[in-house]
Amino acid sequence: MTTSEPISPTTPRSDPGPGDRPDADDFSGLVLRCRGIRKSFRGNLVLRDLDLDVAEHDVVVLIGASGSGKSTLLRCVNLLEPIDDGTIHLDGEHITAPQVNPDRVRQRIGMVFQAFNLFPHMTVLENITLAPERVHKVPRATAREKAMALLKRVGLADKAHEYPDRLSGGQQQRVAIVRTLINSPRLLLLDEVTSALDPELVGEVLTMIRDLKNEGMTMVIATHEMGFARQVADRVCFLEGGRILEQGPPEQVLGDPVEARTRRFLQRIIEAGRLS
Questions:
Q1: Is 232 part of any domain?
Q2: Is residue 167 part of a domain?
Q3: pTM of the full predicted structure?
Q4: E strands, the chain, where?
Q5: Domain tally, the chain
Q6: Tens of pLDDT, residues 61-114
């Protein structure tokens, strides 16, 4: 990051859209609430009655072995996968209710994947402004002005007219994050965003996420970067078999876990030299 200016606003939107609106007292201070989430694929139960609350401005980091349900949970929250049972609320709105339009909900949730998913035939600037112009009907000049301001803040203004294949992996992933921020998401979901990067490029992406935390962005992050989880998380959740087996402050879950299964998982991470 090249300046201390905020990357993205975090003010709640005044119109949460269609869907149930439970009593505000039940969701006070919460951006996200998941209750009893169940999801299976071809008879394999991937999420088992999972509960999760994410408060305003909090960063919740999901850890666990591959196949524990981290990515599936993020995809369910973003309504990319339908849940089999349970409820998901965003700002008190029941977003898994049948009458809710998923595309409208996704306008308030940003998600960044392991792969950069940038269109190779479009420049960086065109990739970032595509959704604001085509989906949100933002005037082209307005969208480009905001995109350039975001690129400047992350040190990529000079790459605005480059094509993705001219960028490093770390630069491409930062562009992918900017592409979600331009829509001012209420909640940001990050799914193993450093796993496809060379080790020397990981730091620039993690610095960007750390700056987002400092600016108050509400985030749920799935990661294998335990050192980063220790630095950025307000709460760490260890997933095992589709459930949150243990959760708490990073110093407790990563430093003195209660559950034997959590301890075994972290021991393997330590042996691999990935807990620092």
A1: no
A2: yes
A3: 0.87
A4: 30-41, 44-55, 59-63, 85-90, 93-94, 109-112, 187-191, 219-222, 235-240, 243-248
A5: 1
A6: 999 999 999 999 999 999 999 999 999 999 999 999 999 999 999 999 999 998
